[in-house]
Amino acid sequence: MLKTSLGRLRAIGMTEAVSFLLLLGVAMPLKYVAGLPLAVKIVGWIHGVLFVAFCFALSQVWMDRDWPFKRVLKTFFAALLPFGPFLIDRRLKEEESALRSES
Q1: Residues 38, 82, 12, 18: is their CA dihedral positive or negative?
Q2: pTM across the whole model
Q3: DSSP 8-state assignment for residue 80
Q4: What's residue 1's pLDDT?
Q5: Is the pLDDT of residue 34 over 70?
Q6: 72 near 58, Cβ under 8 Å?
Q7: Residue 103 pLDDT > 90, yes or no?
Q8: Distance between CA 32 and CA 39 in Å, rounded?
Q9: C-alpha–C-alpha distance, residues 15 and 79, integer Å
Q10: Which of 24, 29, 41, 78 is at 20 to 30 A from 98, Cα to Cα?
């Protein structure tokens, strides 16, 4: 999966999506209900690093696979939604499978 730029995008996207859900579903309630702001600081920092990695991986796929700009924008905006990367992963998986079968 990590051998291709598309596989790396999928892996980073899934990890980034999970970190976003942890930030919203665990760290934020810990901050505002339990008074533990450190949870948001730690999980937010991790999520931020993963989001930047996602953007780099997306730009690499854009160059390697010659995606149209509209598709790059859709993928980027999907990453801004809590469940967005899970929704786009199916299509990326299909494209990755087709890429493997070509080889």
Answers
A1: positive
A2: 0.91
A3: T
A4: 67
A5: yes
A6: yes
A7: no
A8: 10
A9: 11
A10: 78
Q: Note whether 56 and 4 are within 8 A (CB).
A: no
Which residues, other chains included, contact 80 with Cβ-Cβ below 8 Å and sequence gap of 6+? none
Strands (E), 1-103: none
User: What token pair was written down for 58?
Assistant: 């997306």
Give the integer Cα–Cα distance in Å for 44 and 75.
Answer: 21
**Side chain identity at 24, as an amino acid letter?**
L
| 78 closest CA partner among 67, 92, 66 | 92
pLDDT at 101: 85
Confidence at 32, pLDDT banded by 50, 70, 90: very high
Question: Could you report the per-residue pLDDT of 53-74, keeping only the tens digit for each?
Answer: 999 999 999 999 999 999 999 9
Checking if the pLDDT of 77 tops 70, the result is: yes
Residue 100's identity, in one-letter code, is R
| Cα torsion angle, 88, 85, 5, 58, sign | positive
Return d(Cα 5, Cα 65) in angstroms, integer.
Answer: 9
